[in-house]
């Protein structure tokens, strides 16, 4: 069993437990359920930097990244820096996140928020909406084509944007459908955790222009972004690069300023 299989097996149990504790009707009564979500895809298309900055405390590949920061401070710092959107890890066991992190970020910012999660059930999309997310992530490696279709259509029905993540050509081909807004290429091999920007470059020509192209993982330099922009990428997900510092917002601001030069 690789790490991804393990995470999904645990997630399946977790979702069943959450469903038994909080009924759908309760999620639908959330004050945030009626909120109109801004579009991350539109924000990326109109942005000069295209940065989606992430809040991530730890990960299976890096263990602890930063446990000491307040998610609200990070969110406000990112918004002040001028990011296009913020990704919030909500997985507890492997990444140290929670749905509360999403709520806290939502309370202090107006930028589009992505629920970064291993989504395998429509219930998690309702949770995302109820906790202030504007975008959900779907991971092609853990979903069938039918599941991608059903889950993405559920999200669109709730007014949420959908970012679909792929790692290779096979995943990309099963995933292209009109209910997606953005196609993200994860440069990290989820089975080995090795990172290569060549993954984004090689898949770029196969992503139709109807979708905003997003490159994820292993992006730590201005040069990498400038290079990826030549391949049609408009979004860049950056987490560890900012989160490993004592002030992620400040570092994001410096990074974005350099990018604009």
In short:
The protein has helices spanning 3-21, 24-28, 40-45, 71-81, 99-108, 122-130, 145-157, 169-175, 198-204, 222-229, 240-243, 248-260, and strands at residues 51-55, 58-59, 63-64, 85-89, 113-116, 135-139, 161-166, 182-186, 212-216, 233-238. By secondary structure, it is of the alpha/beta class.
How are the strands of the largest sheet arranged? 1-4-5-6-7-8-9-10
Number of H- or I-type helical stretches: 12
Described by the principal axes of the CA atoms, the overall outline is globular
Structural class given helices, strands, pairing?
A: alpha/beta
Distance between the termini: 46 Å
According to DSSP, the number of beta strands is 10
N-to-C series of helices and strands: HHHEEEHEHEHEHEHEHEHEHH
Determine the strand fraction and express it as a percent band. 15-25%
Largest sheet properties: 8 strands, parallel, barrel
Calculate Rg over CA atoms.
Answer: 17 Å
The chain-level mean pLDDT equals 94
Note poorly predicted spans.
none
Helix content: 40-55%
Describe the structure.
It is a single chain. With 261 residues, this protein is an alpha/beta fold. Helix content is 43%, strand content 17%. It has an 8-stranded parallel barrel with strand order 1-4-5-6-7-8-9-10, surrounded by 6 helices. The chain has a two-stranded antiparallel sheet with strand order 2-3. Helix 5 links the parallel strand 4 (85-89) and strand 5. It is globular. The mean pLDDT is 94.
Q: What topology does this entry show?
A:
Layout: H1 3-21, H2 24-28, H3 40-45, E1 51-55, E2 58-59, E3 63-64, H4 71-81, E4 85-89, H5 99-108, E5 113-116, H6 122-130, E6 135-139, H7 145-157, E7 161-166, H8 169-175, E8 182-186, H9 198-204, E9 212-216, H10 222-229, E10 233-238, H11 240-243, H12 248-260
Parallel strand pairs: 1-4, 1-10, 4-5, 5-6, 6-7, 7-8, 8-9, 9-10
Antiparallel strand pairs: 2-3
Helix pairs in contact: 4-5, 4-12
